[in-house]
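Lab notebook, bench 4. The sequencing result for the construct came back, and we need a structural model before the next group meeting so we can plan mutations. Quick request posted to the team channel:

Model the 3D structure of this chain.
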Amino acid sequence: MTGRGLIVGSSVSHREASLEQLEAATVKSGAEALTELLAEPGVEEAFVLQTCNRVEAYVVASDRQVGSEALATFQTTPAAREMDHEESIRHLLRVAAGLESLVVGEDQILGQVREAYETARTEDAIGPVLDDAVTKALRVGERARTETAINDGVVSIASAAVKLAEETHGLADTTAAVVGAGEMGSLAAEHLDGAVDRLVLANRTVERAEELGDFLEADGTAVEVTGLDGLAATLGSCDIVISSTGSTDWVLEPVACRRLGETFIVDITRPRDIPPAADEMDHLRVYDLDKLETVTEKTREMRHEAAARVEDIVDEEFDRLLTQYKRKRADTVISSMYESAERVKANELETAFRETDFDEEQQAVIEAMADAIVNQLLAAPTNSLRDAAEEDDWSTIHTALQLFDPNLEGGGPPAFVEEMDFEEMPESVKQQLLTGLEADD
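Done. Here's the predicted structure in token form:
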């Protein structure tokens, strides 16, 4: 991985896509998706983030067109939104901060970004460009939650589902069931524990449901654990059902839904656990992710002030990251400049020592003097190059390339850099130079 490319991103989320489009965009495995993206021509790095509300991919490629073509094979839905280099970075920061979530400020997304990052590292898909971007996103997410009240109140899809059941149906004197004992199911169970009379935990692996049941200790709630076999019969005695499994198929067939009694159902999965046919059954009240907007909108209003502060954090860290990329590009030129100067110094010292009779101590003094001269001569241009990079002064960077000619054997900047006028250089190429760096946060 060279670290000399642009980030191009693709996002399918609840903001632009229907539930059906989100389901169609779902990938079975983040690791497999990374492997497929890295196999695309010209892709150097890749990062895939998938949650119940979004499927996103980011690649680093030599230019935007190459990245776009790679992402087109990953997402074919028309709901996919493509993002250029800076859009991708800002969007990723906003996602980790919780600003793009269905429930603004929800905490789960930060852990999901971190998990996706670890997967990408395990698959050797993360390189210097995306590493800087994702680690910056994680920092933004942590700052958002420690420095603001963005995660006060309803902070997850699971808690939003319980809040909806409480406000619309009521929890007192009810029997509730949570189908699925994963992360979201566990959160839903914790919120229901102590608020309902009886809680049924249904999971494909009964042992996992039993572990969750042992964790729930609120007084007054009777906890029952069961598998998914005969689920319709189990749910027949339940007033409220919150379903959150990882199944790719419905956990209840339409015919089973017809046999249920009056039931309030919240399906917080993608793909759905409950078939769409249940929406039309009079004895069922079914809410899916799209309908949870009624609860999450109230949360957005409550967190408006905190969100404004988080936007400031995003802007601040976004600017820092761009500056970091720019300084690294300057450091690349500076490093080449010093290597060129060191080569000239070494050649001249070798010639001088060959033609004189200095002993080792005298040679050491002369070498130290030569080092000091090189460092003093290059100190001013070093600072100027770093300042020029931060100010987007590409003519100064180009002049340095011409003056010091830092092309080294087997290295140095690519030939097209020497041949192009930076004043007239397309913005996309400038951005490529900005991101052609080694990570050194």
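Confidence is low (pLDDT under 50) at residues 406-426, 428-441.
Will bring this to the meeting.
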